[in-house]
Write a structure and sequence with these properties.
The structure holds 2 protein chains of 2 kinds. Chain A is mainly alpha-helical. Helix content of chain A is about 75%, strand content about 0%. Chain A has 2 domains: about 120 residues, Up-down Bundle (Four Helix Bundle (Hemerythrin (Met), subunit A)); about 35 residues. Chain A has 7 helices and no strands. By secondary structure, chain B is mostly helical. Chain B has one domain: Helix Hairpins. Helices cover about 80% and strands about 0% of the residues of chain B.
């Protein structure tokens, strides 16, 4: 169990270092996704499976989809096809695939080996839910209001009058 | 969860946070700055979860959920601003945004 923690932490640190040394944004995004998945494995090892699942779904899923969407939307130049071909060369995705493969082996080992992850410090999702909708209910309300404000703010910033936008009439934001 | 494992988890959170801070200070691309912010928020959440696992409380994970919601709202507004800045300046270089006239 200790070894799993160290391997996942090493993968997280390594992929973060590789992320911040990339020059291309999409390459860095690949390494950032691997880093978030490694932190999710760390959460699972620490005995927080609910937070590990949320890390994969929300961080590595939704927020990274936002990043990829914006990067792809900004890359509307004439070199787009050529750049796309350059991104798909095998040298680009072997690094993230290798690091993610280490994480996959580790998760399979953890799922098969020990049923309850690190039984000493484990907090099950039921306790989290009970506390979340008990004493922390006002926090949940505030978080929902914050998300609504973020939605309205993002729409307001991305909104553009139709006469000012030149070639991009339909506002995809 | 022993004392040693908690210390190691906090060390990992510190390493990730300082890596994100370094990237935030070094990189000049706005998307990279937002990604570094994600790494730093993630490291802070890791510290919360490690502390929650140390004392067998659910509060650390709940704080991580709030950090998650905050990061989602922040990245939505930040990326909308990045798109607007790219439309206006045709660049994502933060050095070109140093004059905020008008």
């Amino acid at each position: 169990m200790e070894l799993a923690f160290y391997i996942a932490g090493a993968v997280a640190v390594l992929s973060t270092i590789l992320m911040l040394t990339r020059l291309n944004i999409v390459h860095a995004l690949l390494y950032l996704i691997v880093s978030l998945l490694a932190v999710a494995v760390v959460f699972y090892v620490l005995g927080a499976p609910f937070v590990a699942a949320l890390e994969v779904i929300v961080y590595a899923g939704a927020i990274m989809v936002l990043f990829v969407f914006v990067v792809m939307m900004l890359n509307l130049g004439k070199h787009s096809v050529e750049v796309e071909r350059q991104w798909l060369t095998p040298g680009i995705w072997t690094g993230p695939v290798l690091l993610a493969g280490v994480l996959l082996i580790e998760v399979v080992y953890l799922m098969r080996g020990v049923p309850a992850a690190s039984g000493s410090g484990a907090v099950d999702p039921k306790a989290v839910g009970t506390a979340l909708f008990g004493p922390y209910l006002i926090g949940v309300d505030l978080a929902s209001m914050l998300l609504l404000a973020g939605l309205v703010g993002a729409y307001h910033v991305g909104f553009r009058k139709s006469e000012k936008s030149g070639n991009r009439t339909g506002d995809a934001t | 969860m022993t004392e040693v494992a908690m210390r190691n988890g906090l060390v990992l959170a510190g390493i990730l946070f300082s890596l994100g801070l370094t990237s935030l200070l070094v990189r000049r691309n706005l998307i990279f700055v937002l990604m570094s912010l994600e790494v730093m928020l993630n490291a802070a959440g890791l510290a919360f979860v490690v502390a929650g696992a140390r004392w067998h409380q659910a509060d650390g994970q709940i704080m991580f959920l709030f950090i998650l919601a905050m990061a989602a709202a922040e990245v939505a507004v930040g990326l909308a601003l990045a798109v607007e800045i790219y439309r206006r300046f045709k660049s994502l270089d933060v050095d070109k945004l140093s004059n905020m006239k008008g």
